[in-house]
Amino acid sequence: MKLIVVAASLDLTQPFSATPAWWQLLKAFYEIGVDVIATPYQGPAIESLWWRAAPNPAQWQGDAFKAVRDGLRKATSGFQRPASSQQAVHSSPFPVQGEKSAAAGGINPVPTSSTTADSTSDRAIRQMVKTFITPLWYQHLDHLLTKNPDAAGVLILTAPLNHLVGVAAELQRKHGKPFFYYDGDVPASLPNMSGFASGFRIYQGADPGEYAAVISNSKGGESYLKALGAKQVHTVYWGVDTEVFSPISVPAQDLDVMFYGHGKEYRAQWVEDMLAGPSRALPEAKFAVRGTQLGDLGRTQLLPYLSFSKLREYACRSKINLCITRLAHASVYASSSCRPFELAAMGCCMVANPYLGIEEWFEPGKELFIVQSQEEAIDRYRYLLSHEAERIAVSNRARERVFKQHTAQHRARELVTIMKGYL
Questions:
Q1: What is the pTM of this model?
Q2: CA–CA gap between residue 190 and residue 171 (Å, rounded)
Q3: Which of 322, 339, 351, 400 is deepest in the core (most CB within 10 A)?
Q4: pLDDT digits (tens, 9 = 90+) for 140-193
């Protein structure tokens, strides 16, 4: 099977958090026998041992667009965001939930976008893209499909859907090859959510119905994708390359509790309740974090970023690793994120905040622990830090579960099975 894949980015030096996951998926495609031609939407084409790279047909235009977009958003930010982070959009199809679960006494609703209706700047940006960038992508993919008549289809990995309007519909008619769109950021990417300040708003002005199928990382997001116009919807959760995320030998587990993550957006209260607060309450324990823009972290030590291998070392050095999932994902059923799979693959003992649907992947109490409050987090840390055998047993069971169900190769096979159904 041969696939043409449009990845949002292939450049690991750029601030697109999903890029390492796309590398793992494309590598997994290679390992199961799929011939991949990968072309990036943003940044340069990167050749690898696992795929052939095709150039970005609009690299300088894309860089220029990003600069203009960021400038317009900065200039109009006061008009495009809610006046209060506690403001909610009542048209949301999902229950509005607090930063903490109702059982934990949370009261703040999810920060959502006030721009489910298009803003003037967004419409201007899309018109610019339609004029200068979309035609280049049409010509580029037309060329690739003409040059590779044996390609089974085209898979787009979270490139902005509304920047490619009409491309899939026209090229499917011309070449008879299905186009598939995979959104790995559901539900944060959906119009009723605010998304992330650095991200694209990908659905406004888009037509998901022009794709043979839309695939996402979220079971709970399926109904909304259908409401947006997708003809067929499938769920493929994130997975992990167990050769990349694997345990390493360390001299000692000299860290007690560690968290790796950037930004407190959608999870500020849980960062306080699982990291900052417990670090003050347990002065005898060593808390550490590798991340930025997380706010006041109490007694938590900030670890330097040196390399990916160092991050893996940090995780293996810690007796407990925290999985603090952003509310956008944690509150919509089975909206997978990478971190639980990565930590489990490295043999870490995981403690997580409430995460709706996490039992789809790991069994709470057996393969990881869930805490509902700061007090429960403190009690759980005390118990686990004094019971090494239980930490090891739980981490081993989670790692075994990854090998059985959650590797990148599992996900690549699931995607291939879905796509073959449309050939």
A1: 0.87
A2: 25
A3: 322
A4: 999 999 999 999 999 999 999 999 999 999 999 999 999 999 999 999 999 887
Report d(CA 225, CA 184) in Å as an integer. 13
- What is the identity of the amino acid at 334? A
Strand extents, DSSP E, 308-368:
318-323, 350-352
* Domains by residue range for the chain, with CATH: 2-63+113-239+410-420 (3.40.50.2000), 255-406 (3.40.50.2000)
- C-alpha closest to that of 299 among 250, 343, 255: 255
Q: Residue 174 is which amino acid?
A: K
Cα–Cα separations (whole angstroms), residue 264 to 105, 114, 162, 288, 295: 19, 20, 28, 16, 7
The distance of Cα 241 from the centroid of its chain, to the nearest Å, equals: 15
Runs of H (alpha helix) within 96-221 = 120-132, 134-147, 167-175
Q: How many residues does the chain have?
A: 423
For 114-138, give one letter per residue: b (16+ CB within 10 A) or e. Answer: ebbeebebbeebbebbbeebbeebb
Q: How far, in Å, CA of 67 to CA of 295, rounded?
A: 27
